Amino acid sequence: MNAFQEYYPENVAHCFGCGRLNSDGHQIKTFWDGDETVTHFQPLPFHMAMPGFTYGGLIASLIDCHSTGTAAAAMYRSEDRAMDTLPPFRFVTGSLRVDYLKPTPLAALLEIRGTVKEIKGRKVIVTTTVTADGVITARGEVVAVQMPDSFGIAMPA
Amino acid sequence: MNAFQEYYPENVAHCFGCGRLNSDGHQIKTFWDGDETVTHFQPLPFHMAMPGFTYGGLIASLIDCHSTGTAAAAMYRSEDRAMDTLPPFRFVTGSLRVDYLKPTPLAALLEIRGTVKEIKGRKVIVTTTVTADGVITARGEVVAVQMPDSFGIAMPA
């Protein structure tokens, strides 16, 4: 089973958070798990907020890219299309909200889980949790929007 | 004039976003500019969302750490204390919201500006803009909270 990000067209596969072609980036991999989506990510030692805990910017970044990936996958599902069919769906973030509930341990393998709250036209709203050692440490909500033409990137048709 | 982050106690100066002791991190530097606070940051080529544009997780991270730094500085100001006096103030993020208004160019020097919206007990709310080439590309709001004891880090008294 391929991750959602393996289907991103090559010209939009360089994102630091989720692009498979960004060798310096996080290269997250997101999959369906029933009606939810799941990404696992192991923070590196330097991703610390303070010794022992993960910095909030990484949490935000994981929620962001997990959610835009989920939005794309949800749009394919809603049209009953496989993710390798054309034209591709690719989303950008309209807004991101993160509630930091508890400190997130740095040593734990993080589980990011997304649920599609709403699909409305070109927008998909995704709610996401970050879990470490069985405890939800952060909750996010992303309004993802199909990539506007203003990005000036030609999408393969 | 020192940046806010240069006053962070050593045991809380390792944050990937703002810690002066994290050699792998962004090491942002934030200063007062009248009643606003300002950070400048140059994204690196691999911080891309797609070719030419900055990834949203970096924007979120910059807003986050700029705002917690602003919260600390604002708390010192509200008590009419210099930032090198003890006990220190150090804030964590309770919640973060980012509205992505336009794509943020990767080549531009970013200017992050913060305004203190409210100080209430242990909470400080900071609103922040990210500007590239004179255009506001993102707006953020952070609810920063004085570091709770649950972080288990002894603060120098």
Keywords:
157 residues; 8 strands; 1 helix; 37% strand; mainly beta; homodimer
- Which structural class do you get from the secondary structure elements of chain A? mainly beta
Largest beta-sheet details of chain A: 6 strands, antiparallel
Low-confidence stretches of chain A: none
**Beta-strand segment tally of chain A:** 8
Report the helical percentage of chain A: 10-25%
Strand content of chain A: 35-45%
Q: What is the CATH-assigned architecture of the domain at 44-146 in chain A?
A: Roll
Largest interface: A-B, 43 and 43 residues
Rg value of chain A: 15 Å
Summary, kept brief:
Two copies of one chain form a homodimer. The first copy, chain A, contains one helix and eight strands; from the N terminus they run E-E-E-E-H-E-E-E-E.
What does this structure look like?
2 copies of one chain form a homodimer. Chain A is mainly β and 157 residues long. Chain A has a domain at 44-146: Hotdog Thioesterase (Thiol Ester Dehydrase, Chain A, Roll). Helix content of chain A is 15%, strand content 37%. Chain A is built from 1 helix and 8 strands. A 6-stranded antiparallel sheet of chain A has the order 1-2-6-7-8-5, covered by helices on one side. A two-stranded antiparallel sheet of chain A has the order 3-4. The two termini of chain A are 24 Å apart. The model of chain A has no long low-confidence stretch (mean pLDDT 94). The A-B interface holds A 11-12, 14-17, 19, 22-25, 46-53, 55-58, 60-62, 64-65, 92-100, 102-103, 150-153 and B 11-12, 14-17, 19, 22-25, 46-53, 55-58, 60-62, 64-65, 92-100, 102-103, 150-153. Strand 5 of chain A pairs antiparallel with strand 5 (91-100) of chain B, so a sheet runs across the interface.
